[in-house]
Every structure is written in C-alpha cells, then in structure tokens.
Predict the 3D structure of the following.
Amino acid sequence: NAGVMQNPRHLVRRRGQEARLRCSPMKGHSHVYWYRQLPEEGLKFMVYLQKENIIDESGMPKERFSAEFPKEGPSILRIQQVVRGDSAAYFCASSPLGTGATEAFFGQGTRLTVV
Amino acid sequence: GIQVEQSPPDLILQEGANSTLRCNFSDSVNNLQWFHQNPWGQLINLFYIPSGTKQNGRLSATTVATERYSLLYISSSQTTDSGVYFCAAYNNNDMRFGAGTRLTVKP
C-alpha cells in the first residue's frame, strides 16, 4: 500500500502564474487535509475535503486559492496568480475516516518557490 | 477553533539524555497525534493516542484528555532524533497543529 503521494516535489513559478499541487491519498482513504508550512514555522491548516465535498475551508485564503477532491483522481490545490508570499511547503494528509476517528498520514510535501 | 500549544519551543540535549515534550490543547479533542519532522522535511507518524499511554522503542506518549494535555517522552536520545516534534489535535472536523518543539541532540 503506497503512502500519500504528492507531486511535484518541487515547483518553481514566476509571479502571476498558476500553481497546481496534487495529492493522491492512500488507498481506501477518502479524507484529505491540506496544510501550508512557512520556513521555520508550524503547519497551518488550509482545507479539509472528502470525496467531491469541501468540509472545512476556514484556513484557506479567500482569493486565489481553491481546492478540490474529485470522485476520480487526486486532490488538487490550486493557487492562481502566485505571489512571493505563497512560497512555502504544502503538505497533504489523508485518512480513511474523518474527525480523528483514524490516523492520518502525510505526503512528503510540495515545495513551492515563487520567483 | 482549538488552540494547541507545545513546550518547550527549543530543546538541546546531549546524546543519551532523556526529555519530555508537552502539548496542551484548549478544548476537548476527538484524538491526538504526534509527528516528527526530520531535517529533510518529512513528517513521520509517531503516535496516534486519544488517551492513555503507548510505547514504541525509546519513545512513549501519554494523553490525559480530561486535563487537555499530552506528553512525549524520548529516552536515551540519539542524534537521529533531531528535528521538530509536532502534536496535532482533532476537534470537530479537522486536525490543528502546535508550533512544534525543535530538538537538537548533540553527539
């Protein structure tokens, strides 16, 4: 059973471009969480999704950021018109059930650099 | 939302020493996890511990949910234990992280 897969591992974008980050959860996991980590800081919650539904997006900036978890395929975190402040590591985690009923596992992250 | 606080923020140990890391949370939680982020940035699961005590080798953890805290014990520390230790608490729908404890183990 492969772990949580995130790609790309590293992504460089120029200011104003779009960034698409992908997260394939572990097999059998239908709950996905996205987090952002700035250098030397902790993980900040962004969004929690179940298949085809956004459950909690209270940590997501209101503009330029969006997330989806379609019925088929990976979860996507999309950042439009990137700015330098978006440079960070973005992690996703998956679990079979939500609300902490089961353990969550993290991918290796995508390191976004905006130049 | 729930607030998660970790202490100490930084900890420097000599190899072989023991340590205790603390995680306090502001509200009742459904569950709690401890993670180790190694120097390469990878988040490694240590414990999934809603209550009680668990042990895994030199590491053990105790969560007292009624008093809203969890402890991570590291015994006979090794240089490979260096990194940042996070606790994450589940409240309602999602998992919130503390700011972490940065551990440096010197040879």
The first strand of chain A starts at residue 5 and ends at 7. The CA atoms of residues 48 and 89 of chain A lie 17 Å apart. Chain A has no helices and eleven strands.
